[in-house]
Amino acid sequence: MSTKDFVEKDYYKVLGVPKDATDAEVKKAYRKLAREYHPDANKGDAKAEERFKEISEANDVLGDPKKRKEYDEARALFGNGGFRAGPGGAGGNFNFDLGDLFGGAPGGGQTAGAGGFGGGGGLGDVFGGLFNRGGAGTRVQPRRGQDIESEVTLSFTEAVDGATVPLRMSSQAPCKACSGTGDKNGTPRVCPTCVGTGQVSRGTGGGFSLTDPCVDCKGRGLIAQDACEVCKGSGRAKSARTMQVRIPAGVLDGQRIRLRGKGSPGERGGPAGDLYVVVHVDAHPVFGRKGDNLTVTVPVTFPEAALGGEVKVPTLGGPPVTLKLPAGTPNGRTMRARGKGAVRKDGTRGDLLVTVEVTVPTDLGADAQDALEAYRKSTAGEDPRAELFQAAKGA
Predict the structure, then answer these.
(1) Do the annotations mark residue 235 as ligand-binding?
(2) CA gap 75, 78 in Å, rounded
(3) Which 8-state DSSP code applies to residue 38?
(4) Residue 333: inside a domain, yes or no?
(5) What are the backbone angles phi and psi of residue 119, rounded to the nearest 5°?
(6) Are 292 and 277 within one domain?
(7) Which InterPro entries does the entry mention (predicted)?
């Protein structure tokens, strides 16, 4: 939408509301008209579709308090399509090119009536929020760089303790041949469709509007007059770089880490995008992981489990710890070695969860076999499955 359209169109008339209508009245009028002229309700009716576009455009301005204020101020200054001459004028409306007022006219600017307006005056501020224009012409918006996603594979120990790893990444960066302008001579023109904003708005009905990247300039706000041969007018070129990335301690397999400002560089002073690193962790032959805790399964003999004793347990990257095994420890019991797990965010460590696994010997010597036979005879009256069968009958 051009500045001229903004001044000349009567959006109050389009919605059928008075100039002092409240926000609620504007919204109510828009919803009623939008339902009436919506393309889905008027398929194949070009006039209804055009009317719906006018209604959506009017709501986009009057439904936004800031835009409505700017619109009212502009209408007050320019009247209905032209600037009203002062007492010394010929009467009626004095029409002129609004572009001269915003861009500056040769020889010091446009003068009208008794009070004149310099070409570099403040009238551009009235439209500044709506068209991103200033007294010296259109301002092209800064553009944020794209986000990048990469992957890294760590060993189990690196994931627990943290590591610094090199990442080689390919991303889009400003084209060096044209300094990111996309134009061979470095003189692109402002996109007339989005007026340099890189975005266009469209009504969706129900009082809502969506902002989409401009398809004509691909969201850049600029269009090359003579496209750069290297980047084909896009202003961007592929860039490969190696970055040292610090992966924090305690990272989990599949975790996605965000590094702010480490993505593709922005354009025209815009901020860089972010880097997202997806972490894959290799399995460890001994240790496992449950959140901030590490896990390990330790085999013990039947006498150790039955009579109790002390067992040594390995730790990840440190000396072993000794745990006291109570007499009568059943197979599968889990004990805890505090502070021997993974690093937490606050710098403390989780625990090492030790699960006992009673081993059964496959080859017994004569003495061991005789001892077990004697043990079986001494416990012949005990049936460890009695409660199982009793419970099964009860169910």
Answers:
(1) no
(2) 5
(3) -
(4) yes
(5) -65, -25
(6) no
(7) DnaJ, DnaJ_C, DnaJ_domain, DnaJ_domain_CS, HSP40/DnaJ_pept-bd, HSP_DnaJ_Cys-rich_dom, HSP_DnaJ_Cys-rich_dom_sf, J_dom_sf
204 annotated among ligand-binding-site residues? no
| Containing structural domain, residue 354 | 288-378
* CA atoms of 134 and 107, how far apart (whole Å): 19
Structure tokens belonging to residue 331:
């197979």
Q: Is residue 98 predicted with pLDDT exceeding 70? A: no
Q: Is the pTM value of this prediction over 0.90?
A: no
CATH code of the domain in which 155 resides: 2.60.260.20
Number of domains in the chain: 3
Residue 210 falls inside a structural domain: no
Say if residue 175 carries a ligand binding annotation. Answer: yes
Question: Was 266 annotated as part of a binding site?
Answer: no
CA separation for the pair 317, 340 (Å, rounded): 10
User: Are 39 and 155 in the same domain?
Assistant: no
Tell whether residue 231 is among the known ligand binding residues.
yes
Q: Do residue 330 and residue 244 come from a single domain? A: no
The 10 Å Cβ neighbour count of residue 311 is 20
At 6 the pLDDT is 58
Residue 121 is assigned to a ligand binding site: no
| Nearest-10 crossing angle of helices 65-78, 46-62 | 100
- Cβ neighbours around 315 below 10 Å, total: 16
